[in-house]
Design a protein that fits this description.
The protein is α/β, with parallel strands linked by helices. It is built from 13 helices and twelve strands. The protein has a six-stranded parallel beta sheet with strand order 3-2-1-4-5-6, with helices on both faces.
Length: 390
């Protein structure tokens, strides 16, 4: 297919290299080029001065280097000084007038470059050198800052993601990211995912994961923007590492057809669902089912629990086709998830993941547990009988 002929990483294309050279920090490039020229001039002047001093003065090579460096740095220890007319004239012309002036210009350019770089970073125009990072395209219309903070803290809690860089591609934050986000190591580039040059600037081709957020989590029309961005990523063979939000379920198939990794609904209050989709693809389906009543849902059954351990309860419910036990409610009303499998459970209720279309009733659950008690009693009796016979 034509799409597969495109480079995997957009940064490796020749057109990118040309546009990069023409558009990436023109002023910054000029400053760096001028600094390199000045450094070369400074080194040339210092070498010339060292040779002159070493030739005309009664000093060793090391002493010549020492006096040259202490003079150009304006330290001037005074332990050595040129004694000949040529040595003194060379010091005045080469060091006092030439080298010190060049050194001052280098320092001035360096300060100017730092200010320029800081301004570009604040405006989201700085191109970072990144790889194996996470690119998040778009920003939630409401609560973007807490969403990104929660996303960053959750993603970095996963093994292997502790120090993963996070790059935001958005037109929000024109005055710079909030300090809370920069303190967490997030950076941003001012642009949109529909702009190929912006995708190149954030090094999408070298990213570990790409996340495309819905521009408006309640507007079906935002799916068209998402589709455009995902289509561009798919053309660059980056669909396999892309997770996208889709507002309308009817549009999911169109996004999936582009070969992207995962499609989820926008859930702004729980960035953890997006994190799960990124680090453990497929788990978002389980979490989404818990938030709706279409396929499976958690159901609460209130009744007394006793004399069965967690492994027995889970086995009983699965064997009778009821569902999967997720947690139990203890006598204090606390929901206990992932209890010890062998410790007897005492409580007053169960939370079970069941089918929405055929939700079992309370009596069915009680009967399943009672049958399992009878089975266990029969099994224990048979074990005791076998041990007695032997």
């Amino acid at each position: 297919m034509q799409r597969n002929r495109r480079p995997l990483n957009a940064e490796h294309s020749q057109s990118y290299a040309q546009s990069y050279a023409q558009s990436h920090l023109p002023m910054g490039g000029l400053i760096r080029k001028r600094m390199k020229t000045l450094f070369a001039m400074l080194i040339g002047l210092l070498i010339f001065q060292v040779i002159v001093i070493w030739t005309v003065e009664d000093l060793t090579l090391f002493e010549s280097i020492w006096i040259t460096m202490t003079t150009v740095s304006t330290v001037g220890y005074g332990d050595y000084a040129p004694q000949t007319l040529i040595g003194r004239l060379s010091t005045i012309i080469v060091l006092f007038i030439g080298a010190i002036t060049v050194l001052t210009l280098i320092i001035s350019d360096f300060i100017e470059y730092r200010f320029y770089r800081r301004e570009r970073i604040l405006r989201g125009l700085w191109v970072y050198k990144m790889k194996e990072h996470i690119v998040i395209i778009n920003t939630p219309q409401h609560g973007g800052e807490p969403y990104f903070m929660r996303f960053a803290s959750q993603i970095r809690s996963n093994p292997g993601y502790e120090n993963v860089p996070i790059m935001l591609l958005t037109r929000q934050f024109p005055d710079g990211l909030p300090p809370e986000l920069t303190d967490m190591g997030l950076v941003h580039f001012h642009g949109t995912g529909s702009d190929p040059s912006a995708l190149q600037a954030v090094h999408a081709g070298s990213a570990r994961h790409i996340v495309v957020l819905a521009t408006e989590e309640t507007d079906d029309n935002s799916d068209s923007i998402t589709f455009d961005i995902v289509h561009r990523l798919s053309e660059l063979n980056l669909g396999y590492q892309t997770t996208a939000e889709c507002v309308a379920d009817r549009n999911r198939g169109r996004l999936k057809a582009l070969g992207i990794r995962a499609v989820i609904r926008p859930v702004r209050t729980y960035p953890e669902i997006m994190v799960r989709a990124v680090v453990a693809p497929g788990s978002e389906k389980v979490l989404e089912d818990m938030f709706n009543y279409e396929h499976d849902h958690p159901h609460r059954y209130d009744f007394l629990l006793e004399d069965l351990n967690w492994a027995d309860i889970v086995s009983a419910l699965i064997r009778h086709g009821i569902g999967t036990a997720l947690a139990y409610i203890d006598d204090d009303g606390e929901v206990i998830c992932q209890p010890s499998v062998k410790q007897p459970i005492k409580g007053k209720g169960l939370i079970v993941l069941v089918r929405s279309i055929e939700t079992p009733g309370l009596e069915v659950v009680k009967e399943a547990l009672e049958r399992y008690r009878t089975f266990l009693k029969t099994w224990h009796n048979s074990q005791e009988s076998n041990s007695t016979d032997s």
